[in-house]
Amino acid sequence: MFGSRLPAGPPPAGGRFRLPLRTTVAVAVGALVARSSQLLRAGNGGTIGGRVTLALQPEALEQLGRGRVSVLVTGTNGKTTTTLMVARALGALGEVATNSGGANLPGGMLTALTRQPEAPYAVLEVDERFLPHMVEALRPAAVVLLNLSRDQMDRVGELRNTERSWRAALEKCPSTTVVANCGDILVTSAALDARSVVWVSAPGAWHSDDGSCPRCGAALRERQPVWSHECGFARPGPDWSLDGNLLVTPANDRIPLRLGLPGAANLANAALALAAATSLGVPLDEALLRVCSVSEVSGRYRVVERDAHSVRLLLAKNPAGWAETLSILRDDSGPVVIAVNAHGVDGRDMSWLWDVPFEQLRGRTVVASGERAMDLAVRLTYAEVQHTVSSDLLAAIDRLPAGPVDVVSNYTAFLELSRKLAPHD
Amino acid sequence: MTESTVSIGLLLPDLLGTYGDNGNATILQRRLLWRGVAAEVVPVGFGDPVPSTLDIYVLGGGEDTCQALAARHLLDDTGLRRAAGQGAVILGVCAGYQILGERFASTAGAMERGLGLLDVATVPFSTRSVGEMLCQPDAGLLSEPLTGFENHQGRTTLGPDVRPLGRVVHGKGNGDGTDGVVQGRIVGTYLHGPVLARNPDLADLLLGWAVGTQLAPLELAEVAELRRQRLAGVRRAA
């Protein structure tokens, strides 16, 4: 039930945590490695320090998370954005430790906790695979489940296994309030058996992973927004819901969301963030102001002026993300540069490019770039989208007619481009 | 649809097609249209009757529960099996390939009945096969190597009525050093990506069977360059 979980008072943190010596040493060594990594320019230190600490003290997450009110945010898309929104909203109550840079593996989360040891609150973005581990380690006050769809399956594995692992972890943690998107069938199944759930109806644009019922395995042909299945699995009545850009609250107020971020997907992220923040005691008005003030997320949605071009940086790394991105691109008619890589967290399989309806870009000026530009170029050819291929992304931007340019990249391509466009950030 | 329009059935895209396999239907259609041959894609969803009169059918990959549902629908509805009996061209990829066989087991071990259109049977492998695959095709079929990505846990045993699509140079495929099968005008493979994007010769082989004549060459520089890059990448890794 919404609102059933107001903290009784300020959390017991505030003072320094009493950590075992081994943990203190492990944290110190980790911090030293992180600093060296930064000095050597090997990375930003976001993950490596935490990994070292965890290697020396596997219990470090439990110990550093203890005593804080923590929120875990996971899903296929929108994790980084929603984490920032929740962190900013919870900032109304006190200092928040957060991995706002998207370092969402245990090492990155640990680094966030060690950097702000005094913070009574923690809001952590969690990679889908690590949610069960993190729920067990931190016993969070709230878990936000955004959505679940096909993404990097060569790395992550099958979707329905992920859903079942979430379900099992949440069932075992009755003290956690689950804030779940009941516009997403797999997320609904994952949250259904949890003790306390706040349901938010915020359906996305992608529904191609809903073919079979996650509960009974039979075909699921019912579609959004309200669905029910013969086995009894049905969309729960939402506590919060989105109606266009109106947020319908549990009190049935209809509040227009005027976000600093574009697109329907961010309305969904904001709805879930607001539901989570208010469930932890942030007044709705205050949470709204703070969530709407987010206008850039780790460089995403940022506009960089580069000579004659206003370059907007967008991230899209899977079919569902692209479905939302294409709806943002529809509002413009300018050139689109697309960069795709396939290493590390990108996954190595580019087959997802064929699940993206690039046909919608016909008539636009399109440039294909990135390590796997040729996979994209072939996809664009069969979509009958005129395009050029360029291995040098910046040069490609410079050659375009003056004016706005949208650049859409997947993960590592995005990081590369951000570094090149604003090397001093 | 007129008599001369080549019809391409995209079977159960709501259950199969996890790895972009729906692209195979698009590729077949475009490669005909660009040569001046009329062609259409006919999507057939779960629960819909499967027409038996189409020229080509494509089936893609899917997770366990979706695969089992797809197999049951295609068994209950006799359309695809009647089409096969009339000589239709069929391409099955990954889960779609397994469905066309005699039987297949899910990762959990439950045995499912297949359509019996290919003389193969699939059981779960101990580990998942994930990565780039390179395959030297049967010389009687194709000359250029086949390239794609595989992500499955199947071990497929070939019976006497089928021959392998090719010999695996890099990757896992069927699990016995071969990948895929050919039986009449039916082709199965573990290559996705989708397979026809990277292997235009295979697309044209299927199209040639469907139209009954060899098609004019269709040179696409970007497809040639993509093949060059992927083949070089796999050979470097090997």
Provide a short characterization of the protein structure.
The complex is a heterodimer of chains A (425) and B (238). Chain A has 425 residues and is an alpha/beta fold. Chain A contains 15 helices and 15 strands.
3D structure, described in words:
The complex is a heterodimer of chains A (425) and B (238). Chain A has 425 residues and is of the alpha/beta class. Helix content of chain A is 36%, strand content 16%. Chain A has helices at 21-39, 48-56, 60-65, 79-90, 106-115, 131-138, 153-156, 159-171, 185-191, 264-279, 284-292, 319-329, 373-382, 393-399, 411-421; strands at residues 69-74, 96-98, 121-125, 142-145, 177-181, 196-201, 240-243, 246-248, 254-256, 303-306, 309-315, 336-339, 366-369, 387-389, 403-409. Chain A has a nine-stranded mixed β-sheet, with helices on both faces. Chain A has a six-stranded mixed β-sheet with strand order 10-11-15-12-13-14, sandwiched between helices. In chain A, β13, α13 (373-382) and β14 form a beta-alpha-beta unit. The N and C termini of chain A lie far apart (43 Å). Chain B contains seven helices and eleven strands. Chain B has helices at residues 23-33, 64-76, 79-85, 95-100, 195-198, 200-211, 221-237; strands spanning 6-11, 39-44, 56-59, 89-93, 103-105, 111-113, 120-137, 146-158, 163-170, 178-183, 186-189. The N and C termini of chain B lie far apart (47 Å).
In terms of topology, how is this protein built?
The complex is a heterodimer of chains A (about 425) and B (about 240).
Chain A: H1 21-39, H2 48-56, H3 60-65, E1 69-74, H4 79-90, E2 96-98, H5 106-115, E3 121-125, H6 131-138, E4 142-145, H7 153-156, H8 159-171, E5 177-181, H9 185-191, E6 196-201, E7 240-243, E8 246-248, E9 254-256, H10 264-279, H11 284-292, E10 303-306, E11 309-315, H12 319-329, E12 336-339, E13 366-369, H13 373-382, E14 387-389, H14 393-399, E15 403-409, H15 411-421
Parallel strand pairs in A: 1-3, 1-4, 2-3, 4-5, 5-6, 6-7, 11-15, 12-13, 12-15, 13-14
Antiparallel strand pairs in A: 7-8, 8-9, 10-11
Chain B: E1 6-11, H1 23-33, E2 39-44, E3 56-59, H2 64-76, H3 79-85, E4 89-93, H4 95-100, E5 103-105, E6 111-113, E7 120-137, E8 146-158, E9 163-170, E10 178-183, E11 186-189, H5 195-198, H6 200-211, H7 221-237
Parallel strand pairs in B: 1-2, 1-3, 3-4, 4-11, 5-7
Antiparallel strand pairs in B: 5-6, 7-8, 7-9, 9-10, 10-11
